[in-house]
Amino acid sequence: MKLAAAFRPEAEADVLEMRDWYEQQRYGLGDSFRDSLDQIVVRIETMPQMYAVIFRDVRRGKLRRFPYVIYYRVLSDRIEIIAVLHGVAIQGSGKSESVKDLNAETS
Q1: What φ, ψ does residue 46 adopt, rounded to 5°?
Q2: Is 55 exposed, middle or buried, given 0-12, 13-18 or 19+ CB atoms closer than 10 A?
Q3: Could you say which of 22, 59, 67, 78 would form a disulfide bridge with 29 (CB–CB 3.0 to 4.6 Å)?
Q4: What pLDDT band is residue 99 in, cutting at 50, 70 and 90?
Q5: What CATH number does the domain containing 15 carry?
């Protein structure tokens, strides 16, 4: 059964801000960012278990063209998109503090 993905409101707001920023850098780049994000969301909806659990029940997938990482949880009735963060901001340990904070907020 395919589960639908739902963005948390703060994650959706961040995505819109990122798209706008890319669009300001170059016309059409914001749409390319959103297309890249949409592609990974479709992959996640199709195969939610394809990305490894990185902390508790939070999984992480990397966008292909842009340096962003999508964090999500597979729930019984949907896929919850917790956050989309810039990859450079979260490099380091596999269990960054921001992911721990995100998981605590969703518990």
Answers
A1: -75, -40
A2: middle
A3: 22
A4: low
A5: 3.30.2310.20
